[in-house]
Amino acid sequence: MAMSLKKIGAIAVGGAMVATALASGVAAEVTVQGEVTKDLFVKNGQPNCYVVVGADAPSTMDVVSAADIAAKIGSLCYKEGTVEDGSAEITVHAEAKSDDVDVYAETIPEGNYTVFVAASDSDYADAFENDTGDPYGLADALGVDDDELNEIVSLGDVSTMLKIEDVDPKDWYDSDDDAGEIVAVAVQNDSGELMVDKKNAVYMSLVYTNDEEKFENTTQLKLGMRIPFLGKEQVVVRIKTDDDSIGLGTLVYDGVLKEGETYDVGNGYAVKVKSILKSSTPGEYKVTVDILKDGKVIIEKTDVVTNRNALKIGCMGKISVVVHSAWMDVGENYGYAELIIAKDVKCLYLGEDYINDWVPYAVLKNGNNIELKKDISDSDRPKIVGIAFRYEGDEFEDLDDGDEVDILDYITFKLDDKDKEDKLYVYFSMDKTVDATVNVGEKVTALNAEVKLKGIEANAVEPVALTAPIAKLDTEVSLDSADKNLILVGGPVANKLTKALVDAGKLALDNDSPATIAVLPGEANGHDVVVVAGGDREKTREAALELIKML
């Protein structure tokens, strides 16, 4: 019997056991004497008691009950603290609108178009405004011929559209360039009715030379740059000419990994810099990067890094890596790679429908003019200054008060008479909600709002492994020398310590007693005693199960 108890007690140390048969199927009547509190059993995340069973107990059921109680106490052993790191899902909601103009006052001649433009910075929109021509080819990009263009009108900014103040924060390209969003709609007077036809609406995200605002000052879009994309900051991870695609993703890591190091992206994905080998050509390094899912390599790519190379997995919902540079330590024992890692990568396949008849294009600066291109070549790459989506669906006919043109479920071009006769105002409006994930101490930019997660107010629970057995025999513990509270399992026949308390008149228990849980303060060398017993083994078992429920 004693050997069985010691085995059960050892199992309880690890907290691996769970209480068995917690419900007997019949409601037990249990007498509870005194107040049962958690502090009797656990204090400061550690056991505050011994569970004691008789060494010569006639019933193995008492041993099982002692083990179940010990296991339950083990499950209560944990540390509580304040969460100091982690991440949170946030929701950003914003409403804003541009300036408006009365299209009746700004009469559009029969058969002609007026282009209305707004941006995240009014200077970007104002730079396109012109009442005599199309200096940057915006109207041409909207399918409007020069002889059909009436004028280009700036509606200023929509404050919730996103502008990035520094597209190159780690100075990969030694620049402080900016990036902003621009929207434009060409409205035609078609036999006295206003309409927006195929190609007549566009959204663009463009990179501008620092503090410049004219299209002629746009500059090359490069891997690793941060640009706005429908209100959220994204990092460019792919510009491929062989399949005419541009990839954008959510940045999760920007820094240096040592050869052999792994970065956990989440959801089972990880990125490992497997090896870095020095090439015979000065300044070149052969870098191998693995992308893993659930610990298994799902893609491995090796490239000679002299400047910038991308290592990626597919597109939607996957991971992409851009390696900027590599080097070795002084002793050339191991290497380092400077890189970025992005998740939730979106591949924009140029010329293919993206969403609701909006088609992505690369924006090229051809001279000083906008060129929307779906077939890009290596020679085009230095000319690519951004991305665009152009509407290529059915026409919007007979536009009047209350009508609108939705742009990528992001911003809306609206017509509103404001309850005024012979008036019809047009403007861009946004009422948008976006979700983002932000880590403690980091910032995220969404809808032109910069959000920093200062901290998370929450409690954390950490299980604590027990370092010593809490199950004891009644021959191993005494009431006179106990250094912890005692949980005595079994009546006076089964447990010598219970008998001593009964004989001393501290507790009344006999063969006819019901299932009983009795708290006796200070009866074990100043420590408390909890007796779990009954008139027979079944009653003791009922008392043990009730105690487990109470904890």
UniProtKB/TrEMBL annotation:
Residues in the signal sequence: none
S-layer protein central domain mapped to chain residues: 114-460
Chain ranges of the S-layer protein outer domain: 37-551
Protein name as catalogued: S-layer protein
InterPro entries cross-referenced by the UniProt entry: S_layer_C, S_layer_central, S_layer_MJ
Organism: Methanocaldococcus fervens (strain DSM 4213 / JCM 15782 / AG86) (Methanococcus fervens)
Source taxon at top rank: Archaea
